Amino acid sequence: MKLVLFEAAAGGPIEPGVMTERGVIGIGGAVRPGHTAQLTMQNIIDDFDTLRPALDALAATGRAWPLAEVRLRPPLPRPGKILACIANYWEHGALEARALNMFLKNPDAVIGPGDTIVLPELTEPWIFMHEAELALVIRGPAKKVSQAQWQRAVFGYTGMIDVSARGEGRRTWKAGSWLGKSFDTFAPIGPCIATLDEIANPNDVHVQFWVDGQLRHNYNTDDMEHLVPELVEFATGIMTLHSGDLIACGTNHEGLGPLQDGEVVDFEIHGIGRMRLDVRDPLKRTWEKGIYMGADSTNPEAVRRNRPGHR
Question: How many CA atoms lie within 13 A of 114 on its CB side?
């Protein structure tokens, strides 16, 4: 099942729904409402096992709005926590995996389908880059979950673009801190939450990202250095995760490029869905268009398998 938050009319209330081949079907009358859209989605996550039969019935027979006639909103507008992996993909011929590490990204940076990534008005010579990632949607409370039990803590999946401010090379703004990844609008999420059963194996998912039609990211999640069960064990070993929290699984940095004013980006994770966003830069800065021709360059036309044994 693919769960969404949507507006049936411009400026109207944000409603929970199910995205189907027939269109978007409202499920507000069947679920426990929260004071905010985020809390409503968290209630759906917590109650899902009980709700599933009613939601299946609505998906089959309920009124459907054509997707083109609704506005999808981020399915988790204000997660309690966004944990994001640092790197986590086999790159540049590495023979040993790097140590697993994560950072906290600002939950207020979340935007959704059809929104605009706004580049900050910094005076320093930074470049702003895209990192398209699979994200795990948590069902909690989850604490000290073993790799063998990882599915107990994962409700489903969504996509996240980890927009990042970088200096020379790939150094993240402010000497590698999370600040360069936490500007407003730097966490586009969506287009939906695909429940756990929608994807047979989260480490066999195709991720693609285009800028003005140019394919940049084009990789498979089987290339993670640390696979999804290990991410869940690691994160829940550090802190308690709650329903609606996110773990972003990292990106394959090969294929990075700058984002700049006036561009249109498309992001698709196969099995989850596709969304489009605009980019705006109040300062109208320009960089060389295309894939960043440095340590992160690759051939964008093929899904790369860099994991030892796939080369």
Answer: 13
